[in-house]
Design a protein that fits this description.
This protein has 228 residues and is α/β, with parallel strands linked by helices. Helices cover 45% and strands 20% of the residues. The chain contains eleven helices and eight strands. Helix 1 packs parallel to helix 3 and helix 10 runs antiparallel to helix 11. The protein is globular.
Length: 228
């Protein structure tokens, strides 16, 4: 099994060098790392090139960038990783064991990690625990949980819908029709910068409002406007 790690970036020069250094052992083990840039103006593409990873230019938009990265990838398993998220140790082995089903006769199609949110407020730990619990209950994964999927299942699902928000939820729904997700207990660590900058309770309220509106059928473009 070959793993391709796809990182959508837009002006992530502050996070990218540390992330690519963190991924160096995974690359040394044979994994492919692709940075899908959406038009950064802060030198992110140059940092990716200097690190020796593959750089793909794409139209702006996380879904569009991840689809472009997937199209350029050579791996048969795709891992979509946010630039401010760090994988656990031995993530590659955990994914391979999960996809192969622990010795079962059939492979499983997709999954995600549990998440830990890095930051000072205690509520971030509660939020992460609720995210992990909700994901197990609903079979829906979020981008913060480092989704991984076989290429076959990704193509069968039509890739990420090119919408400006909730693309991870929509892909989860499509993949859930193929199989339930593999929910790995190993944790990725994602930045709590968004929560801290905008206020933890305010962000919780906003995210629940957006999810509720999306469930009711509000267009993703309108939700993206509210999110911004």
């Amino acid at each position: 099994m070959q793993l391709s790690v796809i990182i959508p970036v837009l002006n992530e020069a502050a996070s990218l060098p540390g992330l690519l250094e963190h991924l160096a052992p995974l690359r040394a083990g044979g994994a492919e790392v692709i940075v899908a840039d959406g038009g950064s103006g802060d030198g992110s593409p140059q940092l990716a090139s200097r690190a020796g990873v593959r750089l793909v230019a794409a139209g702006r938009g996380r879904a569009r960038q991840m689809n472009a990265g997937a199209a350029a990838a050579s791996g048969d398993v795709l891992l979509f990783l946010h630039a401010d998220t760090i994988l656990p140790i031995l993530a590659g082995q955990a994914i391979e064991a999960a996809i192969r089903g622990g010795g079962r006769a059939t492979e499983r199609a997709w999954g995600r990690f549990d998440v830990r949110i890095d930051g000072r407020p205690f509520m971030l730990r509660v939020i992460a625990a609720l995210m992990n619990w909700r994901s197990r209950l609903t079979g829906i994964a979020t981008g913060d949980q480092a989704m991984f999927v076989t290429r076959r299942a990704f193509e069968a699902a039509g890739g990420f819908p090119e919408q400006p928000l909730m693309e991870d939820i929509e892909l989860s729904k499509r993949l859930r029709a193929l199989s339930r997700p593999i929910c790995l207990a190993e944790r990725v660590t994602t930045s709590g910068r968004r929560w801290e900058a905008n206020g933890v309770w305010r962000t919780i309220w906003l995210m629940w409002r957006l999810r509720w509106a999306y469930w009711r059928g509000v267009d993703a473009a309108e939700l993206a406007r509210l999110y911004r």
